[in-house]
Amino acid sequence: MEVGVGNDSGNVVGAVAVRKVTVWIVAPDASGGPAITRWEVGATEQEIELGYHYDIASDLARDEGYGDPMVAFDESDPAGQSMLALMGMQSIEQQGEVPGAEGAPTWTVPITTNVTLSANVRVRAHDQKAAIEVAREFIANGEGAGLLSLDEGNYKGKADFYCPDPGSVVPASELEEV
User: Helix, strand or coil for residue 99?
Assistant: First the structure.
């Protein structure tokens, strides 16, 4: 997006490219409790390189009653990438498909990656070991991607996903059958 640039007389004398950037602010709210807020700010490439977009978002947060100390990060920072992943994650209740053997008992399987993203996956299998394999395959094939909100370029297959605690894989008999 381009924004007009004016002189002291109010005449437009040129244009500058402005990019929208997502910035998160971690700060105390008006009651002093911790809060994470998300701000969309416009900044030029030079302003972004100099970190001014953090200042813009911090000023907006202060205007809304958030206080210091304040930490800001954007979508290119590791913390921002984690926030984007978290925003796209679904709960197990939102999982549409329950993969596995038709008519088999339903299991809840925790699946994680080496980058600490994790999710519980509901699958059908005749035993615990099979349930883990069905869950790993389901996530690796991208069918359950909304559960982990993964950048597909970083994951090459089932070997990237594992069950951190096989003892925690339990029949989901208390869950409503889907």
Answer: coil
Q: How far is CA 13 from the centre of its chain?
A: 41
Domain boundaries, the chain: 2-76, 89-171
| Entry pTM | 0.49
- CA gap 117, 36 in Å, rounded: 19
Within 8 A by CB and 6+ apart from 51, the residues are: none
Per-residue pLDDT of the chain (178 residues; tens, 9 = 90+): 544 445 555 554 456 788 898 899 999 998 988 888 889 999 999 999 999 999 999 999 999 999 999 999 998 888 877 777 666 655 666 667 777 888 888 877 777 665 556 667 778 888 888 888 888 887 776 666 555 544 444 444 555 666 667 777 767 664 444 4
Dist. CA 161–CA 145, nearest whole Å: 12
Residues in the chain: 178
Please list, in sequence order, all residues whose beta carbon lies within 8 angstroms of the beta carbon of residue 167, skipping any fewer than 6 positions away.
none
CB 51 within 8 A of CB 38: no
The rounded distance, in Å, linking the Cα atoms of 87 and 68 is: 25
Element (H, E) at 140: helix 128-140
